[in-house]
Amino acid sequence: MRVRRGRLLLGSSGRAPAAVVLAVCVIVTGVLGLLFRGQTRADGFDNAVDSPFITFFAGHKHLLLWLALPGTLVPAIVISVAIAAWCLVAGRLNGAVLALAAVPVASGLDDGLLKHVFNRTYLGSLAFPSGHTTSVVALTATLAVLLFAPPRQAGTRVARAALLAICCATVAVVVVAVIALRWHYFTDTVAGAAVGVGTVCALALVLDLAWPQERVRGEERGAVASAAGNPHGHLP
Question: H or E element: which one contains 102?
Answer without folding.
Answer: helix 93-109
